[in-house]
C-alpha cells in the first residue's frame, strides 16, 4: 500500500508521531515486531507510567549537542502532554521531584495514544520484522508498503527481552548518518571484588548525594549484591564511563559530626557514632572499612578527618554497569548533527526522520525520557 508515512516502532515516540501526522490528514502506517503497542510504557513507572515531569528543561537531557532538544521541548511541553492526559480524563498525581504518574495504570497512557491514532486513521502492522528498506524516487519501501516519509522510532537496545534492538542505528547508518556510541544508562553500577564489603549489606538504602564527573544527584542509593543502585545511582550512571570514580556523600559535614560524637560519647567506638548517622548495617560496613579501632575519645582530629572522608566523599570505582538487560534507557544514538532540531528530519535524506530514544538525546530519571518521546514525536508528526 502507499502511505504518506511509515513509522518504524510503536513505542511512545512512534505512537505520538503517528497520531499527530494522522490527525493532520496524513495516511500513516506503524510497523512493529512486537504483538502490541507501547510495551515499555506498560511496565514504566512501576506500572503507573511516570509520563512527564513538571521540571522539564533542556539541561536535564544528555546529548553530544545539548542545544538540540531545546526546540522540540519548547514547542510541545510537559503542560501540553498533561492537557492531553486530562482531556482523556486520566487521573494523575505528582510523586516527588515533579514526577507525574497515572493514579490508575500505565495502560491508560497506551489506550490514550492508540485512541489518538484511531482518531487519525492510523494503520498498524504488528509481528512485522523490518527487513530491507528500499529508497528511490517514489520514497521509501518497507516490505509491501511505500511512503514518501519514513520515521525511525525503534528506540535503543535497552531491555532486549522487551523487544528492544539497535536497528535504529543500522537504518541511520544505511542512510549515511553517524551514531554517537550507545551505552546503557539509568542502570545499576557493579562493584569489583575489592568492594565486597558492600555486597554484604545488599538491600540497605539511604539518602545520598552521588557525584560523577561534575554531575550530582541527591536521592537514595541502594546497595545491591552486585554493587549500587537506587535513583541517585541510576541518575549518575548516565554520566559514568569506565574508569571514572563515583563519589557518595553519605553524611554531609561528617568531620564536624564525628567531633561532636567524640565530645558526647568519648568511650564509644566509631561504629556507635556512625549508627547515629546511617542505617545500622551500613554503619557496620563503613566502620570495618575505615578500621579505626580505638575509642572516639582517643582519636585525634586527623584520624576523625580521615574517617570523615569515607562518609562525605566515599569514592568507589565501579567495575561496570549491569548492562542493557537492566538499563532503563540508552545514552548516545543517532547523531543529532544530521537532524533538524525543529522537525527531526534528516538533513541528508529528505523524508527520513528519527525520534525518541533512537536519537542521541537522553533524559534524567523521572519522566524526562517520555517527554522527549512526546516532544520529538510531535515535531516529526507536525512536519510530515
Ligand atoms: P520504545 O523502545 O518505547 O519503542 C520502540 C519500539 O520499536 C518498540 O515497540 C519495539 O518493539 C520496536 N522495535 C524495536 N526494534 C525493532 C525491530 N528490529 N523491528 C520492529 N520493531 C522494533 N521513561 C520515563 O520517562 N518515565 C518512566 O516511568 C520510565 N520507566 C521506564 C521503565 C523501564 C523498565 C524502562 C525499560 C524504561 C523506562 N522509561 C521511562 C524510559 C522510556 O520507556 C523510554 O525512554 C521510551 O519508551 C522511549 O520511547 P521510544 O518510542 O523512543 O522507544
Automatic annotation (TrEMBL):
Keywords: FAD, Flavoprotein. Signal peptide: none annotated. Its cofactor is FAD. Residues 4-382 form the RsdA/BaiN/AoA(So)-like Rossmann fold-like domain. It comes from the Bacteria. Coiled coil: none annotated. Residues 183-329 form the RsdA/BaiN/AoA(So)-like insert domain. SUPFAM superfamilies: FAD/NAD(P)-binding domain, HI0933 insert domain-like. This is Aminoacetone oxidase family FAD-binding enzyme.
Amino acid at each position: 500500500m502507499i502511505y504518506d508515512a511509515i513509522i518504524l516502532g510503536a513505542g511512545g515516540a512512534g505512537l505520538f508521531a503517528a497520531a499527530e501526522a494522522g490527525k493532520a490528514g496524513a495516511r500513516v502506517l506503524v510497523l512493529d515486531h512486537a504483538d502490541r503497542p507501547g510495551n515499555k510504557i506498560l511496565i514504566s513507572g512501576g506500572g503507573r507510567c511516570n509520563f512527564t515531569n513538571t521540571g522539564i528543561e533542556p539541561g536535564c537531557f544528555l546529548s553530544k549537542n545539548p542545544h538540540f532538544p531545546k526546540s522540540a521541548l519548547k514547542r510541545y511541553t510537559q503542560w501540553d502532554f498533561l492537557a492531553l492526559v486530562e482531556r482523556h480524563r486520566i487521573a494523575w498525581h505528582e510523586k516527588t521531584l515533579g514526577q507525574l504518574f497515572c493514579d490508575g495504570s500505565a495502560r491508560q497512557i497506551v489506550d490514550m495514544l492508540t485512541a489518538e491514532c484511531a482518531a487519525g486513521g492510523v494503520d498498524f502492522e504488528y509481528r512485522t520484522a523490518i527487513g530491507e528498506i528500499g529508497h528511490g524516487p517514489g520514497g521509501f519501501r518497507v516490505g509491501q508498503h511505500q511512503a514518501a516519509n519514513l520515521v525511525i522510532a525503534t528506540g535503543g537496545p535497552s531491555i532486549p527481552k522487551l523487544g528492544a534492538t539497535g536497528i535504529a542505528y543500522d537504518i541511520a547508518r544505511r542512510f549515511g548518518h553517524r551514531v554517537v556510541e550507545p551505552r546503557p544508562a539509568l542502570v545499576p553500577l557493579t562493584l569489583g571484588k575489592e568492594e565486597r564489603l558492600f555486597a554484604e549489606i545488599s538491600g540497605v538504602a539511604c539518602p545520598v548525594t552521588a557525584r560523577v564527573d561534575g554531575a550530582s544527584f541527591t536521592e537514595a542509593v541502594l546497595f545491591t549484591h552486585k554493587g549500587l543502585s537506587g535513583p541517585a545511582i541510576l541518575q549518575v550512571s548516565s554520566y559514568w564511563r569506565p574508569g571514572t570514580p563515583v563519589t557518595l556523600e553519605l553524611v554531609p559535614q561528617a568531620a564536624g559530626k564525628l567531633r561532636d560524637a567524640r565530645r558526647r560519647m568519648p568511650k564509644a567506638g566509631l561504629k556507635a557514632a556512625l549508627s547515629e548517622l546511617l542505617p545500622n548495617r551500613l554503619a557496620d560496613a563503613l566502620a570495618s572499612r575505615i578500621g579505626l579501632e580505638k575509642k572516639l575519645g582517643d582519636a585525634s582530629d586527623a584520624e576523625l578527618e580521615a574517617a570523615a572522608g569515607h562518609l562525605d566523599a566515599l569514592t568507589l570505582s565501579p567495575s561496570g554497569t549491569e548492562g542493557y538487560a537492566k538499563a532503563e534507557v540508552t545514552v548516545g544514538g543517532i547523531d543529532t548533527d544530521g537532524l533538524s532540531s525543529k522537525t527531526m528530519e534528516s538533513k541528508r535524506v529528505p523524508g527520513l526522520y528519527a525520534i525518541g530514544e533512537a536519537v542521541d538525546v537522553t533524559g534524567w530519571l523521572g519522566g524526562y525520557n517520555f517527554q522527549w518521546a512526546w516532544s520529538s514525536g510531535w515535531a516529526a508528526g507536525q512536519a510530515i
